[in-house]
Amino acid sequence: MLSAKSLFQEILDHDESFRLFCSIAAGGEAQGGWENARIAVLVPQSERALAPKIARHGADEDKHGRIFAALLTRRGLDPVPVPPETDYTMLLERRGIGLAHDRLKADRPLTVQDIVTYLAHSRVTEQRASEQMALLRRHFADHPDIGRAVKMISDDEDDHLAYCHEELLRFARAGHGRAIQRTLRESALAEIRVHRDVSLAVMACMGRILGWSRPRAAFLAAGIHAVHAWERFAGWRRMVSLTMPERRDALGGPETPAPEFV
After folding, report:
1. Using one digit for the tens of pLDDT, what is the confidence trace for 80-116?
2. How far is 259 from 149, CA to CA, in rounded Å?
3. C-alpha to C-alpha distance for 156 and 159, rounded to whole angstroms
4. Which pLDDT tens digit goes with each residue over 124-164?
5. Chain centroid offset of residue 109 CA
6. How far apart are the C-alpha atoms of 64 and 221, rounded to whole Å?
7. Which of 153, 146, 15 is nearest to 80 (CA)?
8. Tens of pLDDT along 19-71?
9. Torsion angle defined by CA atoms of residues 145, 149, 151 and 157, in that order, rounded to the nearest 10 degrees
10. Three-state SS annotation for the chain
């Protein structure tokens, strides 16, 4: 029976598919680490108290990239170039979601509105990351090779999502509510399109590596389109709501050390 667990198990068991999966994941996390590090440096003076949390967010993302790279090393594998059509962060930037890299490379402070845009974009993408890692955690938390990594990254993604909720609610109370809701909606609708496109591209790559039959590939593609249709109709709303998290100040402490194998 085809399931999320059996599908990922197939990818995990094959060196080349696992190599591609970890390379894509490592590249995306490293990019997120760089973006957050730059934002922390450029935070406007009025929001300097937020800089350590943004830097912690970036350090976590960079750590995740190192974890995925270490998983490859443990299996004696080298990373592979990430196909452009699977580059989630690059495709989001091309759609104008988040802060442009040209802006982050400039040495001039960001504005408060820039920080609101960054947090709204992060709230949407961290929702996706939290859900995906929760799925892997449900099926592979006890796996001897990836279990520790999955649990650590899942915990971090939950913290990142909690931090985005808390900070956006603070900015909403300060009068940015309409801008937040507008940016959240725009980001969510763009993200679900990019997620669909990237999912189709990744599944196509995996299908070629693993030799999937046309009917199986078509079935998986249909499933991806069905998920997108639901998200386009109603599912996007889960990405734009704001609720005060149970865990407050989730990024207020030091970075959690990476597992020993990193």
Report:
1. 999 999 999 999 999 988 899 999 999 999 999 999 9
2. 7
3. 5
4. 999 999 999 999 999 999 999 899 999 999 999 999 999 99
5. 25
6. 28
7. 15
8. 999 999 999 999 999 999 999 999 999 999 999 999 999 999 999 999 999 99
9. -150
10. CCCHHHHHHHHHHCHHHHHHHHHHHHHHHHHHHHHHHHHHHHCCHHHHHHHHHHHHHHHHHHHHHHHHHHHHHHCCCCCCCCCHHHCHHHHHHHCCCCCCHHHHHCCCCCCHHHHHHHHHHHHHHHHHHHHHHHHHHHHHCCCCCCHHHHHHHHHHHHHHHHHHHHHHHHHHHHHHHHHHHHHHHHHHHHHHHHHHHHHHHHHHHHHHHHCCCHHHHHHHHHHHHHHHHHHHHCHHHHHCCCCCCCCCCCCCCCCCCCCCCC
Q: What residue type is assigned to position 37 of the chain?
A: A
One-letter amino acid at 151 equals K
